[in-house]
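For anyone still unconvinced, we reproduce a single protein record, the chain in one-letter code, the fold tokenised, and leave readers to judge:
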Amino acid sequence: MNTKLKKILIKSKKEVFSEIIGNNSSKLKGEGYDFLELKEYEYAEDVKNIDWVISAKLQKPYVKIFHAQKELNINLIALLNGSVHFGTNKFKQELICEICSILAFSTIKQGDSFSSYIANEKLTLCTKKSKKSFSVEKMAKDIFEYNSIGKKLSYKTVTNSIFSHLKRRSLIFLIGDFFNIEELDLKLLSKKHELVVIIIRDRFEENLTSLGNINIKDLEDGLEHKGFISNNTLESYKKHIKKSDYLLYEHLRKCNANFIKIYTDENPISKLTRLMK
């Protein structure tokens, strides 16, 4: 196993089992132990849930409703296209690998199972539904060693594939850098599933400084650019990124999706802990 990958797995496992990342953050109505609300009794409901004290006071039968204690159906989806093969502190792809490992270990810790996928021009299964540590290792290896250079990301293809492939209501984590979001539409997916979006960025991408004469290459389509980038071009680029992120955040809010941004120079565990509590 690659030394860097081994360190990611050891670090992720150690942090998860020494931290508390909220258990079963998605709660449903049903049989369980966490009280949710009182409601008026309806015909054919289980009489054992009647609250006799409240019913006596209100002169009507009322029943207790509880949070369901059900195993979550968790799916980790790593969006790996050419742009994640970049980073000044560490590659974004490495950070995606680390975050997926943390989430997978956390899922196992709370007694749930997880499945994992790699997505770009298509949706590819990494690991089937599992509660085993070896599945985390396989997923991490697949993501870490995946050749993302030359891969383009089709949000439309990915979201349609997820919608048709995942039949049961699930908690879905989408992890990627979320550039070029013109085709991104999570409205239909959010009606069927609970979504959490984790945006991965390198600070340099959002705060470019004067570079002068450069030679850059687009890692999705292979196009190269040689020449001078002016300050006006840099400012236009920064404005474009801010506008794109604003539209992304607004779309995620409309879809009731939780989201967070993590940079390559950050330790992801603290932000993930806050996100899942």
